[in-house]
Amino acid sequence: MHTPRRGQLAVICACSVMISTLLLAPAMGDDEANPVAPRRPELPSLEKGSALTNPIDRFLQSTYAAEKIDVDHIVSDEVFARRVHEDLVGLLPTPTELQAFVADSHPDKRQRLVRKLLADRRAYAEHWLTFWNDALRNAFRGTGFIDDGRRQITGWLFAALYDNKPYNQFVHELISPVDGSAGFIKGVIWRGTVNASQRREMQAAQTISQVFLGTNIKCASCHDSFIDTWTLDDAYGLANVFADEPLETFECNKPNGEFATVKFIFPQLGKIDGTAPRDERIQQLANIMTSPQNGRLTRTIVNRLWAILMGRGLVEPVDEMDLPPWHADLLDWLAADLAEHDYDLQHTLELICTSRAYQLPSVGFPDPEETSYTFRGPLVKRMSGEQFLDAISSLTGVWQPVEPAMVQRDGRGQGGQLTDVALVLAERRRDQTPATAHWIWNDAQAAEGTIGGTLYLRREFTLQAAPKSARVIAAGDNSFTLYVNGKQIARGENWQKPTVVDIQPHLRSGQNVFAVAAVNSADKDKQPEESSNSAGFLLSADIQMADEESVVIETDDSWLWSTQSPDKWETVGFEAQDWKPAVELADIDGGPWNIRVPLLAALIISDSQVRAAMVMDDALTRALGRSNREQVVTRRQSVATTLQALELTNGGTLDAVLKQGAENWLKESEANSIAIIKGIYTQALGRAPTMDEAALAHELVGEKPTVESVQDLLWVVVMLPEFQLIE
Predict the structure, then answer these.
(1) What are the start-end ranges of the H helices in 137-261?
(2) Residues 570, 574, 580, 583, CA torsion sign
(3) How far apart are CA 517 and CA 479, in angstroms?
(4) pLDDT (tens digit, 9 = 90+) per residue, 585-626?
(5) How many angstroms separate the CA atoms of 646 and 641, rounded?
(6) Which of 209, 213, 471, 576 makes a 20 to 30 Å CA pair with 670?
(7) Coil, helix or strand for 300?
């Protein structure tokens, strides 16, 4: 070990490192203690008579034998389905899905279920977004966004998960940014007086070391580390990769007049040219980090995946990869196997989830007095806050509300995450046709440019009965106001962000009318008649009748226009004798607009069951464990807290959701108490209530259930450990 520099002992308390980690850390400084190169152990041969085929189980054969683990004693189909649904997509299986899986007689049905869940690209991406948001510090709002001091990567991250981007490419694009990913290494530009160890370049060094290499250099960012051999020069050498000019080193936040050489913390993997421009240095770093010779990258991520699925990593803590794994051969083999399968994280997830090890009955946490860990099965896990809220949404039918801030990004770059995700989905659904509507105006040349002013448009239509549902999507260049049967329903100020609105309450049997005041804004320095820019209006209404008939009203040349707005022009029965037919300008892919993707995105947002991963943080999400994402979090605490108990029992958010859920259950079950009780238990726990549970629940709900009594039952069920735990 090195000799501490003067002044270091005075700040040792600043190192937030557990004593157990200090005592367990191996001696560092050579390749044996600090392995980087990949290693692919040979698969153990199968023991005589063994039916184990999964490589993970072959490595664990000796553990099974030593611990007398019966590998044929695996969890039931019901438990497996609930476990793997929560682990891979973060959602409870529906009663229909669960029933079908249990009834399936195929011998490989568990592997088929795993593959089916991984193929649900949207559900998979929405679930894993939570883990990566925590790890990559991707916040939707909060400290640091002012003056572009922080930047979201939500759209890029969701697309990467949705497309199952190879992990080496994923890492490369985060370190050497592409469009949409630059916010990661940008970090947070803190305002006010900032410790030198938290400057932007050092944040990048700390974050990539922790997230991708399981290496903590935060202590070494302030002074030579007390628990390993990472030095101030190591930390500043990596931070210098991201600097515009050489960084002077600060020891305990005091400049020492020294300048570190640009280098990677594992120099055996390659050198970085300190004389190259910043972007080239970053590119070199990304290449080194994702080199096939960097076994530390693959070891770190497979260890994280194992910890997420099994409740405990092969190395613990997961951010201290210098510590010895409890099964080195298994860790190294999984890491090599990931690289051999093109860094496909879903391949590794499938391998783990189809092993007997994953399918064993869950066990409690090890005794704190145990000096070493012995695998006996997956650990019982608590749902994350997002999993818990999504489970409640599945149970109640009440998903997260769409707040304006989730759709519209503000001037500081906060919010808009739902639109980012919707645009990713829309791009991947470009072959879908959201509408056959046409842009219309009164001038055939309006797409190229026309005079400014307001154009009034009308379209009357007849419905045989009041509709079951009706939705309209509209866009206007430059803006519009929509009236339905004389009532103003919606406004749109940006044609690139179409407006979607529910119009069912405003339609009726008989004659109806859509009326629009569409504005082509004039140039500020010109009179309306002198200005000229593109103008158009587009609308598509999907009206569903009770008999399943669909009525579609869209903008085309059947609409009428006028430049005048006589009294009651927007109402049914108005005599539009002097109004003229509109001119069709272009379809959704034409003109200067090319609006297919924005239309699809707007419809996706409108149709979405918004999950908890997409919402802004609030008192409930914070109580349930979501961090402010100002620091890297690769694992949330699994232990319940007093704050959680107080928020769950006294908070207004959950109470309102359960009340609305009770109303939904009453409506869907036609106030049948037996159906309500059985339905809630089956949806929440994947099983029918026991006789005792049914009797107690019936006493609680009563013969004539009310909103309050059903809400009480929902409270009881969601507070059960069986609901909140993944077993």
Answers:
(1) 154-162, 167-175, 183-186, 200-213, 232-239
(2) positive
(3) 9
(4) 999 999 999 999 999 999 999 988 999 999 999 888 999 999
(5) 9
(6) 471
(7) helix
